[in-house]
Recover the amino acids of this structure.
């Protein structure tokens, strides 16, 4: 046995040397190569073999790994970097919204909105059974419910159910024809519990005005006829295509086991809660899943440790699917900050209602759920918008750290408002900040629908990226697509400028492009628990990489915003190039 061990070691070293010496399948040379490896300078070239990075180095070093069979790409000075990674997205439903009638957050005068909807329906978009369903609707419309009612509750709309789905995924509006189908009238609203009534917009006499949020919105959404499997598979393909187009080669699906007719905010998982997972499996089996999908399993905000067993059953049903992994669970801790929803849990009450939003978890027992997840080697990914929700999320992780000091890579996403006292806790507890910094802009959502209703102190801490970074937090990039664009280049530039149509939002919270490049590469890979496989260009990692149309290290911020991807590679194979 003593002789065998050295012999095995020598054989292993020989195989390793042979792999290193073997000719590359593909070399990309004469470029500016950003590896995302900490402290590593820009390189010139990359060699790829069997879908993995063989070596990164100078042109001379990489050319030495090529032979007559090697494919060669001259980058001609272009920037090459790892594929982008999105740490919070809903791509399949975003793909469906893209294929349907999607307002994409545009605010039109209500009469123009009616004409646009009629045109969409005429062109074959927007119908779900006999319901007309419009996606991507701006929250700015919810203040105009009287104007919506004046147009969409009479004439051609008197008997035509219509639903406007908010782009935030938490709110929406339904006309009287849809309310009738739902059996929601003044008597029904009056009979609701105070909590449920808070999710249904209504007048003083309890007459519903069409506005819904959170569980109330779930009630409306669940009655929209579901799309066919063929349509949803087409949506999944579209999701992959669009992400690859923007250079995104991995993402965290933030509610993979939830279907279109499931209640998201009062979700009760079963062993058959497969959501979009069968679609990912079919794409993978067809060789069409050119991205890593880290599938989070949504669980009820007040789940007990025992409730995780059913999620494990779902996970096991999809183990072994290529490019599909299951890092952990997703929890809604609160809702949204914008008026009139105001379901984000705040430390100080909203000025107009004297309420503090809705804390969906039970803070007395949430830590126990975090511990239970850790025992299964799962992370917890927490939706927290308000400062109170963020604080209670951190408290849950702190409870777990008292029992075991080892950080597990849990993450909190959105982080619209964070109390300064909690900035250092992210580093202390090893919690990753998954941020949608495309939202860090002076616009209707952050100014008109927030500023009048919260304290000046809370307003000054919207999307506090710089403060978190300065306190040592790991920042990871995210889109929350379809709430906003999946284009990481828009978000990277926005994180720097924070400017918008209504001014600059908290300029002191700007962070630099180097931090954002890391946020969408290695830091994001850590959030997905895939940092050993992807996230940087290092030997042995999968060859997911992109070639860009401009020098993102030197162009101004406006030009950075408009960055285009020229080529996307997944496992060493080109999966996107713009049509010539």
């Amino acid at each position: 046995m003593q002789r065998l061990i050295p012999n095995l070691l020598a054989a292993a070293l020989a195989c390793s040397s042979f792999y290193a010496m073997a000719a590359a399948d593909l070399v990309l040379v004469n470029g500016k190569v950003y590896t995302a490896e900490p402290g590593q300078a820009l390189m010139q070239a990359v060699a790829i073999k069997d879908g993995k990075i063989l070596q990164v180095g100078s042109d001379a070093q990489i050319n030495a790994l090529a032979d007559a069979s090697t494919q060669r790409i001259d980058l001609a000075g272009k920037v090459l970097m790892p594929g982008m990674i999105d740490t919070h997205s809903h791509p399949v439903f975003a793909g469906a919204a893209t294929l349907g009638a999607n307002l994409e957050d545009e605010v039109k005068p209500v009469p123009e909105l009616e004409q646009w909807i009629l045109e969409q329906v005429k062109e074959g978009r927007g119908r779900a059974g006999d319901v007309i369903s419009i996606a991507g609707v701006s929250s700015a419309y919810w203040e105009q419910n009287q104007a919506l009612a004046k147009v969409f509750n009479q004439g051609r709309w008197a008997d035509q159910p219509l639903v406007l789905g908010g782009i935030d995924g938490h709110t929406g509006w339904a006309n009287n024809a849809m309310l009738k189908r739902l059996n929601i009238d003044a008597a029904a609203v009056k009979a609701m519990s105070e909590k449920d009534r808070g999710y249904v917009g209504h007048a003083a006499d309890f007459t519903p005005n069409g506005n819904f949020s959170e569980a109330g919105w779930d009630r409306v959404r669940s009655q929209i006829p579901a799309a066919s499997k063929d349509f949803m598979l087409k949506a999944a393909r579209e999701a992959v295509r669009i992400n690859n187009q923007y250079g995104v080669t991995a993402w965290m699906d933030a509610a993979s086991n939830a279907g279109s007719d499931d209640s998201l905010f009062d979700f009760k998982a079963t062993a058959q809660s497969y959501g979009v997972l069968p679609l990912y499996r079919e794409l993978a089996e067809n060789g069409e899943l050119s991205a890593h999908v880290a599938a989070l399993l949504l669980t009820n905000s007040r789940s007990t440790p025992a409730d995780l067993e059913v999620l494990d059953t779902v996970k096991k049903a999809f183990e072994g699917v290529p490019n599909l992994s299951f890092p952990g669970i997703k929890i809604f801790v609160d809702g949204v900050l914008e008026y009139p929803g105001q379901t984000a849990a705040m430390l100080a009450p909203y000025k107009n209602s004297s309420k503090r939003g809705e804390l969906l978890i039970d803070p007395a027992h949430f830590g126990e759920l975090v511990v239970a997840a850790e025992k299964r080697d799962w992370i917890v990914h927490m939706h927290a918008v308000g400062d109170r929700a963020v604080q209670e999320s951190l408290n849950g992780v702190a409870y777990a750290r008292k029992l075991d000091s080892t950080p597990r890579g849990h993450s909190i996403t959105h982080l619209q408002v964070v109390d300064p006292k909690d900035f250092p806790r992210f580093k202390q507890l090893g919690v990753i900040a998954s941020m949608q910094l495309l939202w860090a802009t002076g616009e209707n959502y952050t100014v008109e629908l927030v500023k009048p209703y919260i304290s000046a102190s809370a307003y000054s801490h919207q999307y506090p990226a710089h403060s978190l970074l300065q306190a040592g937090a790991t920042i990871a990039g995210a889109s929350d697509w379809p709430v906003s664009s999946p284009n990481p280049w828009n978000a990277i530039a926005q994180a720097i400028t924070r400017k918008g149509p209504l001014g600059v939002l908290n300029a002191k919270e700007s962070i630099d492009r180097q931090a954002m490049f890391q946020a969408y590469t290695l830091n994001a890979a850590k959030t997905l628990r895939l940092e050993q496989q992807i996230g940087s260009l290092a030997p042995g990692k999968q060859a997911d990489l992109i070639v860009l149309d401009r020098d993102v290290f030197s162009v101004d911020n406006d030009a950075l915003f408009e960055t285009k991807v020229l080529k996307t590679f997944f496992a060493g194979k080109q999966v996107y190039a713009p049509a010539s």
